[in-house]
Request: fold
Amino acid sequence: MTDQYAVFGNPIAHSKSPQIHRWFAEQTQQDLSYQPILAPEEDFQGSAEAFFNQGGQGANVTVPFKLDALVFAEKLSPRARRAGAVNTLQKGKNEVIYGDNTDGAGLVRDLQGHLQLNLNNQRVLLVGAGGAARGVVEPLLEAGVASLKIANRTPEKAQQLVQIFHGLQPRAQVTACNWAGLEGQQFDLVINATSASLSGDLPPLPAGLFATGATAYDMMYAARPTPFMQWAEKQGAEQISDGLGMLVEQAAEAFFLWRQVRPETSGVLQRLRQEIQAG
Ligand code: ATR
Reply:
């Protein structure tokens, strides 16, 4: 029987995940179906339970259900526990529902693979301290960065992330600050993990943040460059990327978890980019 997978979200109609996973399945000749499921905002659990009871094998989970999925999962991977969020569910042995988080691994694979960045010893600025930021701290530290500064509009939230992750990689310095604390500092990589781009906003970052040859990365994606990407260009960042590669890579990580087959991602990313730009 064809194995069933799904992505849960609200809204879900514009999710690219079904397309990505269908391309992965085609490419790797896996017999599976992958459907978008619109779960009611107050009842992720009911919706997910129904899916798994009817034979679902695995699911991705997107906004606003990543915390609900953390609660729903019966067993968590260490990285999902530390990220405080689950984006991938899998029905395992004995019908146990396993929760993982592939977002951070997806970001790091995009940075190291498609963007060819060597993260080792880099000075990294993470802008934002919400769920999206929290999900990527651990893999960035594991990639060997020299320092990770977390800056946020509400600095206490950045400080909380430092508390959760400091000491995980003793070699890396993990610190928090507000916008003013960034004055005069320089970074090799600046990642925008705020949701500001969604409303066409830009965090009020000071000028001069990009070191020579630095990269700017917005975890959001859109047909046109986001306000953060436009600002980074004016500020002289050498390489500028949106988060479409992260989306494809987090999907590939989930696919690998479910199917033990690693799909090729470059062609999928290219096709997706073309589709998005064509509108
Ligand atoms: P997500 O899961 O997408 O991270 P979230 O947990 O609501 O969503 O976090 C949103 C992040 O974007 C937070 O870091 C938020 O800053 P605060 O913690 O101060 O709320 C940040 N953010 C949202 N809109 C912003 C804006 N216009 N300017 C700067 N930061 C913004």
In short: DSSP finds ten helices and twelve strands in the chain. The CA atoms of residues 68 and 269 lie 29 Å apart. Residues 104-242 form a domain with the Rossmann fold fold (CATH 3.40.50.720). The two ends are 35 Å apart (CA to CA).
